[in-house]
Amino acid sequence: MRWVRFTAGGRTAYGILEGERIAEVAGDPFRGYTPTATVHALAAVKLEVPVVPPTFYCCGLNYADHIYQMAAKIGREAKLPAKPDVGYRANNALIAHDEAVVIPADASPLVQYEGELVVVIGKRAKHLTPETAFACVLGYTIGNDVSERTWQKSDATLWRAKNADTFKPMGPWIETDLDLDAAQTIVRVNGRETTRFRTNNMIFGIADYLVAITRYMTLYPGDIVWMGTDGLPPNIAAGDTVEVEIIGIGTLRNPFVTERRA
Amino acid sequence: MRWVRFTAGGRTAYGILEGERIAEVAGDPFRGYTPTATVHALAAVKLEVPVVPPTFYCCGLNYADHIYQMAAKIGREAKLPAKPDVGYRANNALIAHDEAVVIPADASPLVQYEGELVVVIGKRAKHLTPETAFACVLGYTIGNDVSERTWQKSDATLWRAKNADTFKPMGPWIETDLDLDAAQTIVRVNGRETTRFRTNNMIFGIADYLVAITRYMTLYPGDIVWMGTDGLPPNIAAGDTVEVEIIGIGTLRNPFVTERRA
Questions:
Q1: ipTM, 2 decimals?
Q2: CA-CA distance, B136 to A228, in Å (whole number)?
């Protein structure tokens, strides 16, 4: 099942996507919903970020090739994480499918994409076990963890490097039925494939993170966990369009533009 | 003016505190409100966290003595921050005045308080200047940035060290009229004063942070910025009660207990 959050006629609602049509619901997939008689054509609505989370978790370094290639590029020794330490991103940065990533006026040319699987939490959970971990998962969407690498290196935190307005495209929808082991993440820049990796080839898997997180934190409906990326992305400039496809979910597409300051 | 968020009769609402009485409003201080005829005794309601923010910002190291004393304690060179790099905390950790901080079962004895001024954003803002920065501020409340120091040192991020459930007491209310330069932050453990500092004796002030943040991020109504702490706090154990008072705002009080696992 595919959950879309969309705006039509000035109203934002959730619906279930069936082919190219959206069956609107009253309510939402987190607190409960009932069907309505309203149907929209997918092409006629504006897609919104599928959920604005209470807490926005992210897994930093979670694919071995990304760590090895990044380390080689900057001449440092590669160091794989010893345990699943989660981090945070910020809601101000979220944008929907087809919305523009606005590169800040003073950013360096080292603006890069990171295509990521996003786990969407559907049920409140604490003290999960490997056996129960997936019971709290509503489904999956796609994120692009846009990063400015000079700020990532120079700042004490990742605040502007990864959380500047528009730096967190997410969507296009939530897929509740995903064959994780069959999934591949494919990134295209202006239609040309630049990255491809097995989505589930993680150092620590989804269950590992959910168990670790919920040893200390309560997960709430609508929380999201971005699972990290693989490979070494190229620089993206204004005028480029980045598509992150995860086979089994769909494609998240966003153009990049430059901030205009008065 | 003091804004309280409270629950009475199973309903959560905002109100304006006048002495020991709360004048309930319809709506909230962020999106707008109208008075109601309902009045509550402060002692008869349950205080709630004054706001659950869209984004939860924090200033890490922002008082010189805290940095010097922490560095001396662990035998490292003190390094003052060169610019106001902001960080993040997580909503799952928020608790209200009088609620218990639950120390996780596997925490070390190095659990410590950090008494902090909290800036509450009232209006959407981007590209603030030093002159306009305070126009987006609704008011101020108090935070206790509870920290587990072994995890703070061992983990790749501050996730469980500072964001375990209940590690972010905040309240008791939002004060809109605060003389920042007259404010002092005083922390008491079981009634005994253990920390006192001038609240506004920051390395980077509130305007510095709001200008820096809004160069890249939009601040939204309800966002909060925790301004950091001074001094070197002692360890807190189950059974202790910590009060953080900021003169001109009020007192945030929380007992500490230990997690019980089945």
A1: 0.94
A2: 34
